[in-house]
């Protein structure tokens, strides 16, 4: 029996030098993105006005299995990676479970999350192309912070549209984004047509990732030398995040371990897609059959209660149409405390894998999530982000099932980030004012009714 350390760090030399493109091993690829005006598949060139060229190429590349990580990005990664694979010995003990619980901790950088893995790649390719500024949206603020860090490293001006309810819940996000020279705007705002339209309809809206995306895309296409970058959902982002899974798999191999269950929270799907990538490869190629579980908030249940349909990626209906599990781009989830999980859609790659039966999904209510978060914090000394705590909840539930059955399953989950900017959320849990809001079937039906009508398709 190998002695299992509490924390396993790979060496710099053991870090992956290539990202893994999950699409190359999928039996069927996700359906193509469609141009919303013509309903024809979008080409790589069609994406150039929105995305920088290399990223548009990665977005459309469904066949290259491994893609070299440019050396500059590898060097940047080394400032905060490899991230540790941690064995949750104390949590296991507290639960009294025979399960072996591992987690990959991505919160050990200033952005506080896995988002920096893709932010630095996107800023690098933008700089390489000679672009002069970038725009983006952010929900919880981690992505905006990560991109501000990456842009300041490359001296690229950045405008961040932050979902209004998160902007108000987390004033220090503004300060940190500004520390890295980012310009931050609460969304919806009156600075764009998309924002003004949304505000006209509902002046008191708390905003959503979908609204913020509309504003950022509009800014990109109306500003010379500016492009839009996105921290989740897209194929290119899942590609960059594959570093999480590749490192995890190498570390587990060193311990002679292999997960029976892999669990990740799912907002737009980037951490989950990255964590599961090499394990899903094993599943797709018949080498192993781990259970893979996506965990989403009950207030924004795109996989568990959504439709698999073509939809806009944003509320303002300006982006291409993607086929994905969606609650309808007009759906505005209740203002819960996991801003990074308040997105109406889901990565088309993960949506396809879920649709084809390769993964499962569960939804959890936020009070149950914070119960898990506080238990985890006390046992493992890491204060988890509310988003990450969705995965903790599901990992604990699986470990408790093992306690009942006596099975010593190996569970791996993604601990995507820290929750230091989410203390309002922790306070509301601790003082008993936190509530759970779950959309009714009628509310969901109303949003489904607004899905785009595409002749011959839907
Ligand atoms: C800490 C953290 N975890 C998870 C997510 C969810 O995003 P994704 O589904 O793209 O991993 C976010 C998004 O902001 C986040 O900040």
From TrEMBL:
<protein>
    <recommendedName>
        <fullName>tryptophan synthase</fullName>
        <ecNumber>4.2.1.20</ecNumber>
    </recommendedName>
</protein>
<keyword id="KW-0822">Tryptophan biosynthesis</keyword>
<dbReference type="GO" id="GO:0030170">
    <property type="term" value="F:pyridoxal phosphate binding"/>
</dbReference>
<keyword id="KW-0663">Pyridoxal phosphate</keyword>
<dbReference type="GO" id="GO:0052684">
    <property type="term" value="F:L-serine hydro-lyase (adding indole, L-tryptophan-forming) activity"/>
</dbReference>
<keyword id="KW-0456">Lyase</keyword>
<comment type="subunit">
    <text>Tetramer of two alpha and two beta chains.</text>
</comment>
<comment type="function">
    <text>The beta subunit is responsible for the synthesis of L-tryptophan from indole and L-serine.</text>
</comment>
<dbReference type="InterPro" id="IPR006316">
    <property type="entry name" value="Trp_synth_b-like"/>
</dbReference>
<keyword id="KW-0028">Amino-acid biosynthesis</keyword>
<dbReference type="Pfam" id="PF00291">
    <property type="entry name" value="PALP"/>
</dbReference>
<dbReference type="GO" id="GO:0005737">
    <property type="term" value="C:cytoplasm"/>
</dbReference>
<dbReference type="InterPro" id="IPR036052">
    <property type="entry name" value="TrpB-like_PALP_sf"/>
</dbReference>
<dbReference type="InterPro" id="IPR023026">
    <property type="entry name" value="Trp_synth_beta/beta-like"/>
</dbReference>
<dbReference type="GO" id="GO:0004834">
    <property type="term" value="F:tryptophan synthase activity"/>
</dbReference>
<comment type="pathway">
    <text>Amino-acid biosynthesis; L-tryptophan biosynthesis; L-tryptophan from chorismate: step 5/5.</text>
</comment>
<dbReference type="InterPro" id="IPR001926">
    <property type="entry name" value="TrpB-like_PALP"/>
</dbReference>
<feature type="domain" description="Tryptophan synthase beta chain-like PALP">
    <location>
        <begin position="80"/>
        <end position="417"/>
    </location>
</feature>
<keyword id="KW-0057">Aromatic amino acid biosynthesis</keyword>
<comment type="similarity">
    <text>Belongs to the TrpB family.</text>
</comment>
